[in-house]
Structure formats: C-alpha cells, structure tokens
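anyone seen this seq b4? input:
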Amino acid sequence: MTPTLSALHIFPVKSCAPLALDASAVEPRGLRDDRRWIVTDANGKFLTGRQHPRLTLLHAMPDAGAIALSAPGMPPLRLEALALQLPCRQRRLLLIRKSPR
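predicted toks r here
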C-alpha cells in the first residue's frame, strides 16, 4: 500500500479557519505560515477557539510579512507584522480587542 496525502491545510492564525494548500515548504518550525499568528486579549493572554468559537469563522491568508483577514459580515482587514527585534516566536502576535460598547 502506498501512502497518499489527500489534503494539505495550515492554520495561519491559531484557532481560526484552515487554509487549503496544494503544496507547502517545510521549515524548521513546520509548514510555512502554519500557526505563525495568534489572537490575544489586551493582557497578552492567548484566546482559543474553545473559549471563543467564533474565531473559527475567521479566515486568514499570509501576505508577504502581513496577514489578510476576512470573516462573514465583516470588511476585510490586512495587518502588517511588526518589524521589532523580538525573538522569532514573538514577532507575530495578532492582538484583537473587544470594541467598547
């Protein structure tokens, strides 16, 4: 029996919708652009799809040092990665705060 890869998906933003790919480069940290962004609250605490199920509706597309976001009923948004001198694992934190009501 020959192994066959039937699908390839990454999650550019952890806990958000998957992105289907035809191919991907493999880097030391895994597939390119997989889980390189994360949603945090104002205090830096990670938010998950288990805590906030609507996160799974957020679609993300990596875009040359930025991320393009879309969600049902919302206008598209493109966020640039901050070019700070931080360790690699801390460079791309996506901070989404609740808007005041």
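The mean pLDDT is 81. The radius of gyration is 15 Å. kinda curious what u guys think
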